[in-house]
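Hi support team,

I'm filing this because I wasn't sure whether my run with S-adenosylmethionine finished correctly. The job status page said complete, but I'd like someone to confirm that the output block is well-formed before I use it downstream. Pasting the exact inputs I used:
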Amino acid sequence: MAKDFTYMVTAAPGLEDIVVSEILNKLPQAWIQAQVRGRIMFVTNHPWEELLKLRSIDNLYLHIAWLKIGQYKADLPHLASKIANLNFPEFPLITRAKSNPRVIVNASRSGHHTFSRFDAAAAALEGLADGHGYAPGTKDDHDLHFRLDIMGQDGLFSLKLTSAEFRFRGYRQFSQAALRPPVAHALVWLSEPKDDDIFLDPFCGSGTIPIERAAYPAASITGGDISPEAVETARQNAPEEVEIRLLDACNLEDIQSSSVTSIVSNLPWGKQIGNDEDIEALYRKFLAETNRVLAPSGRAILLTDRHEELTKACRMAQMQCRALYTISLHGMLPTIFSVTHGS
Ligand SMILES: C[S@@+](CC[C@H](N)C(=O)[O-])C[C@H]1O[C@@H](n2cnc3c(N)ncnc32)[C@H](O)[C@@H]1O
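And here is everything the job wrote out:
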C-alpha cells in the first residue's frame, strides 16, 4: 500500500475553505490536519505529482517536522542541531537526491524574536550541512529547497515541491490587473463547474479566469473584454476551447436571454476606474445585463472590494447578493460574492 505523507499547501489568505474543498474532492481519502491563515496541512497516500492538480494553491510542500524555536538569537544553535538530528521521511525526492545535494532554505517569521528570518534560515542550513551532508546552493542552482515558517515559538520545516512556474502556469502574459491563476481557479472552483455549463467572464482582461475554467469540461467557455489590447492578450494566452470576444459587459446584446449558466468575473475595482459614479453606473448596467442573460438557476461569482456599489446594483436588478469570502490580495481586501436571481 502506498505510504501516507503529510503535505502543506499555501494559498492567498481567505481562500483556505475553497482549497480544502478542492483537496477533499480531488484526493479521495485525504484528511485535513490543520488549517491556518494561508496554509493547509493534509495527509494523503496519493503520489505527490498528483497533488499538482490542486490548482487553487500557490505552492505545495512536503511537511518534515514541527520544531520548538526559542525567542532569542542564542537559541539558533539549538535549532541547527535539531535540524541536524531530524529523520527525514522516505520521500522519493529526498531518497533519490544525489549525494551531497545543494540546498537552499527560505524562512518566514511572525512573533517576537531577537533574530531575523535570515538568521533562522542560516541556522537551518547549518543543521542540514552538519547532520545530512547537504551543501549550500544558490537561488538559481540547487537540488532541494527547504522552508522554515516560524510562528511564535513553533517552526514548521518543509521541503518545497513546486517550482516558481507552477502558480504562474508557465506560459502566460498577464495584464496589469490580472489575477494570479490560483486565485482565478478558486473563483472557478467556487462556481462548481458542470459539464453542460455555458460559462462567461465578461471582464476577462488577459483571460486568467476562462483559461482556468478550461481545466474542466463545459458546453462553452467565453471570455470578453471592452479593451482590444486585453482581447489580443487573452487570445494569445487562451487554449482553443476558450472563445475570446470584444464586448461591453454593460450591453451583452449578442448573448441570448437566460442562456448563461455560470458567470465568474474579477470586476474592475480598487484603483482601476476613475470615480465612484463610473463604478456605480458600470455595476448597475452590468447587473441589469446579468439578470437578463443568466439562466434561472445560474449563478455569478464576482470579485470586488466595492461592496456597497455591488449590493446596490444587485438590489436595483432584483438579484440576490451574498458575500462569501474576503481575501488578501496585494495588500487589498476584495470579497468574493455569489449573485443569483431573486431579491
Ligand atoms: C480586473 S480586470 C480583469 C482582469 C482579469 N481577471 C485577468 O486576470 O487578467 C477588469 C477588466 O475589465 C475590463 N472592462 C472595463 N469595463 C468593461 C466593460 N464595460 N465591458 C467589458 N470589459 C470591461 C477592463 O478592460 C479590464 O481588462
